[in-house]
Amino acid sequence: MTTQPSEPPVEKKEIPNYKLYLLAVITGIISYFIAALNPNLSFISIILIWPAFIAAAGCVEFLCRYGLGTGTSSIGYWGTACGATVVFASQFIETTAYSPFLEIAIATLLGYAAGFCANKIIKMKIPRIELNSAIIAGSTGIIALIILEIFAGGAGMAGTTVYYIYPVMYIGIALTILHPYNGNLGAGENQTRTLMLAMCEAALLTSLFGFIGILLPNTPFIPALGMLIISIIGFVIFVSIWWKRVKEEVYDVVWAGYPEGVDH
Amino acid sequence: MEPVTLTLMIGVGLAGAIAFIAGIIEDAESDAGSSSNPNSQVQLAPQIGHIITYYDKAIAGEPPQNGLWAAAACTIALLLSWRFADLGMGQYYAIFFAAVAGAAVTALVQGCLGIFAHISRITSMAAFKQPLYWHALLTPLPYSMGLCFLTALLLTLLSFVASGILGNSFAPPLIALFMGITLGSIASGTGDIHYGAERLYQHLPFGSGIAISNQGDIDLKGEYGFRNSVDTPYFCMRFGGTITALAFGLLIFLDGWSRLFTFAGPWTSIILEAAIIAVLFIFLNRLEKYTRDSYGPYPGQEDA
Amino acid sequence: MDPITGMIGIIIGGIIVGICVHFIPASAVGAMSASTGIATGPSMLSTGCGLAGLYAAGYMIGESLPLVVLSGAMGSALMIICTMLLANTICAFGTGVAPVAGSYDKDPITGWRQKPFMSPGTDGHSMPTTTALSGIIGALLGGAGGSLVFVSVYEMISPILESTTAVTIAGMVGAGVFLINCVIPAYVLVGKSEGMTDKKMKLMHKTFVSCLIVSVITAVFVYASVVVI
């Protein structure tokens, strides 16, 4: 998995989120064109959208560490609402002028506007909230766009039954970007482990989508199967990386028993 | 009686019954994983020196996680039922089999996310010398997955009933998402109080509220030995879960019931629902009066 | 409905959704009976009741606009009153506390004193009458706003797409706009609100402006994707 951006194992410095996002946008657009030109290669597209999950999870982590005033889950599904709603609203209409750049740009703009309101009008005074909101919205836009493109099988969305999976896509993406931080919450939380968990969950979600893709009537079978297999392979690899990191950081691993020094 | 109305009535009753059972199971699922708002107390405990053996699932807020279970199960069920129907199976058989398969896949996803959340959160508590106990994870895990399976299955069936018999115009997966999020917020607003304010703090006097200074000082002992998360739902299901179920069941049942009548044309359901809301509001007020009269002012607070 | 009216409908609906969150009493520490309000985050609870409203509005689609909007409002009000009544029941019989508000001493409707019933070290418990009324008002607004967005999107896209497709996509977009707007007030409320008696009601203009900006962008985009492209 050479495409994964956040691998440096023991690095103290945190990776800035905008770099992750730049990578996510570049790989996202490459991935879009791969899926659009040759649907049979869309298992490569799946690998290339994992960075978008990581960028979004990194931003959720950044925002929530400041004690945002919303729960972690609120920011997750708010960000997905910005990104995915833009994609959902525009995808189904048959059109010629439409391009992935436009949707990603609008999603990013919507996220930026909401962050701007939070900082300038409500005066939250969280540094770089605009940038991070924009990244969450933009990344979810990328994810939704490419998954829909793969499911459409390069033939366009109009007239298909793909809209039946909008709800699960929406809530699945939301949970996957908010959960890495929420799952790691605690005093010993750090960016590396959070992003590793984000990779595991991204692969888990794409394998769920791969399974759904196999069942969808309009989706070609080969890309969906490729998506499922490649996601499961990725899942196994990422979980083993994550588990190695957990064993380094955890206090102790015990099968059962009572805590020391407690009467029972 | 016209057959259409009879079908509708059966549909309303069925939807209410399914919703009621889904409410009980859902609340138990959240208690078994100590998720939602009381989770903050479980999270605080190691910081004040309590080593816990709770299952710290905390997948997200309760509404989104339930939304995912319901939406995923219902989407898979719908798509799979089309595939079964292509093979020549009857529509209703197809939906029943497919709903079970969808819920099973969802339960696997829940298990994965639960393991990730528990292990990661315990790892983040390393500074407070909290070890990762396997038994605290492995005992409640199948239980919690089973409850998730049932929740997803029931919500899937509920959305098929709402769309097929009651005639809601949304597609079943979207109804499942709405129902999942609504049930999640109802359960986190009602059932969790019984878990967070009573089960976690059974050593404090009944009726004292949980003062901010006591937060995090949760019970570590169960009825026998150290408390594990499987010990929780049997306590909470008796009261908190049933009341949660009543809230969600009432919502679905009354909403459907108000659509059975036609005396004022399409306005009937709105008039009836307004009346129901007024009646329930009066109940709320009477309940407040009853508790105030029977409990009396808090000792020491009378002239504050 | 022509697309311009639909666009204005989305903007108005979005703003109403933002405002409704201020009225809904909610607080995460409510789960420990340590504060007034329903025991979950304000945005989470508003989402739950708004989506219950959308579900109710789904039965009415195809009828006239006021019917759909009112049906959504009633659906969410029903959800919130069920939740509040039974949350009070749990507080009364499960944890043994009476409903008390922290933000006022005498209930404006019933005239009952609140302070003596509050257990020490907490900010109140569950929902007394006035707070509950505020919750119902909030839910009526939220359900109406959500259904207005839903029906506007539906009317805009129904000429282009076939009916069942249009309903589901409009429902998803309606839910999306609802979710965007109901999280923004959480920045003002900071996780806790006691409804209309809370001091944070004075900050509502901030929510109004923020939701206006965000809704305008969303509405213009939906308009553009339906009409221009």
UniProtKB/TrEMBL annotation, chain A:
Q: How does it assemble?
A: The complex is composed of 8 subunits; MtrA, MtrB, MtrC, MtrD, MtrE, MtrF, MtrG and MtrH.
Give GO BP annotations, semicolon-separated.
Answer: methanogenesis, from carbon dioxide; methylation; one-carbon metabolic process
Q: Identify this protein by name.
A: Tetrahydromethanopterin S-methyltransferase subunit C
A GO molecular-function annotation: tetrahydromethanopterin S-methyltransferase activity
What's the top EC group for this one?
Answer: translocase
According to its UniProt entry, what is the function of this protein?
Part of a complex that catalyzes the formation of methyl-coenzyme M and tetrahydromethanopterin from coenzyme M and methyl-tetrahydromethanopterin. This is an energy-conserving, sodium-ion translocating step.
- Gene Ontology CC entries for this record: plasma membrane
Automatic annotation (TrEMBL), chain B:
Quaternary structure? The complex is composed of 8 subunits; MtrA, MtrB, MtrC, MtrD, MtrE, MtrF, MtrG and MtrH.
Topology in the membrane? Multi-pass membrane protein
Identify which top EC class this enzyme belongs to: translocase
Per the record, the similarity remark reads: Belongs to the MtrE family.
GO biological process terms, alphabetically, are: methylation; one-carbon metabolic process
Q: Does the keyword Manganese apply?
A: no
In the Enzyme Commission scheme, what number(s) does this protein have?
7.2.1.4
Descriptive protein name? Tetrahydromethanopterin S-methyltransferase subunit E
Q: Which organism does this record belong to? A: Candidatus Argoarchaeum ethanivorans
Question: Does the entry feature the keyword Repeat, yes or no?
Answer: no
Any one Gene Ontology cellular component term annotated for this protein: vesicle membrane
Q: Which InterPro entries match?
A: MeTrfase_E
GO terms for MF: tetrahydromethanopterin S-methyltransferase activity
Role: Part of a complex that catalyzes the formation of methyl-coenzyme M and tetrahydromethanopterin from coenzyme M and methyl-tetrahydromethanopterin. This is an energy-conserving, sodium-ion translocating step.
Alphabetical UniProt keywords: Cell membrane, Membrane, Methyltransferase, One-carbon metabolism, Transferase, Translocase, Transmembrane, Transmembrane helix
Automatic annotation (TrEMBL), chain C:
Q: Which domain of life is it from?
A: Archaea
Q: Name one GO molecular function term.
A: tetrahydromethanopterin S-methyltransferase activity
Q: What pathway does the UniProt record associate with this protein? A: One-carbon metabolism; methanogenesis from CO(2); methyl-coenzyme M from 5,10-methylene-5,6,7,8-tetrahydromethanopterin: step 2/2
GO BP terms in the entry: methanogenesis, from carbon dioxide; methylation; one-carbon metabolic process
Membrane association type: Multi-pass membrane protein
Quickly give the catalysed reaction: 5-methyl-5,6,7,8-tetrahydromethanopterin + coenzyme M + 2 Na(+)(in) = 5,6,7,8-tetrahydromethanopterin + methyl-coenzyme M + 2 Na(+)(out)
This chain's protein is named Tetrahydromethanopterin S-methyltransferase subunit D
Organism of origin is Candidatus Argoarchaeum ethanivorans
